[in-house]
Amino acid sequence: MNHWQPQGTVYGTLLNFRREWDFWVPKMTQDPHKAAPQAPVLYVKSANTFNPGKVLTLQDGIKEVDIGACLGLVMGEQGLVEGVVLLNDWSVPHSSYFRPPVKFRCRDGYLGCGVPPVPLSALDLASLSITVQVNGQRVQTVHLSDVVRPMDRLLADVAEFMTLQVGDVLMLGTDVLETGQRPRARAGDTVCLMVPGFAPCVQTVQAEAA
Predict the structure, then answer these.
(1) Percentage, residues of the chain above pLDDT 70
(2) Cβ distance 17 to 24 under 8 Å?
(3) Of 94, 65, 83, 74, nearest in space to 10 by CA
(4) Is the whole model's pTM more than 0.90, yes or no?
(5) N or C end of the chain: smaller count of CB under 10 Å?
């Protein structure tokens, strides 16, 4: 299997699953914003994060990482979605969505990719679910029917303030558990993401070499 990786910029979307949105609602009126976001909350996964391999290496004494099972929209010509890709948006656990997440999300190798995209025409996104397994045990099921902004609305809302280029990827977001946290992995764990119609995305977490 060819190891696919993005050819453009990858944008992540925060707060696009109802459970996480509802978890943060009580704090949205606090400083500094004092209101719920009206537009999509985006961040960038820089090119150094692209990891089409089988291993995620922890760095700087980090002991565990958040698993971010998600689907990404791969942009084609004329602003249309060409395909959909299964990704693992790894991040360092952190407690606030107010602060820029660069140091948490843009570490080397922190975007698990490699699985080729599936044509959008072959999918019914709203009916899909992502199964997350750690060491063969299911720890989460992400239902795409639970997004706040489905694909068409997310694309339209993003288009109001920026233009996505051919090869760019817009992730639909990652969901949380009932605790408000994402599932986590530590050195030695193997994480497998599975969606019907996609090849599995599998990576093993390893400690940084001494």
Answers:
(1) 96
(2) no
(3) 74
(4) yes
(5) C
